[in-house]
Amino acid sequence: MKTRLIIVGGFLGAGKTTLLSVLGRLLRERGEKVGLITNDQTTGLVDTYTLSAHDFAVEEIAGSCFLL
């Protein structure tokens, strides 16, 4: 089984969470397993809550941001 990593970044309000939700649903419809990681400066992220509400497996990394 091959693991794919898709990194999504952008400004506040750019549509990242919406994109992840739509893409996640499409991948699940194709039979793929989907796991999401959210990150920001604090815990209890709205993104984590929103994506979890759509039945995605979501983990949160708080207190830092990914730098690429």
From TrEMBL:
Pfam families: cobW
Annotated CobW/HypB/UreG nucleotide-binding domain residues: 6-65
TM segment ranges: 6-27
UniProt superkingdom: Bacteria
SUPFAM superfamilies found in the cross-reference section: P-loop containing nucleoside triphosphate hydrolases (SSF52540)
UniProt cross-references to InterPro entries, sorted A to Z: CobW/HypB/UreG_nucleotide-bd, P-loop_NTPase
Keywords per UniProt: Membrane, Transmembrane, Transmembrane helix
Listed name of the protein: GTP-binding protein
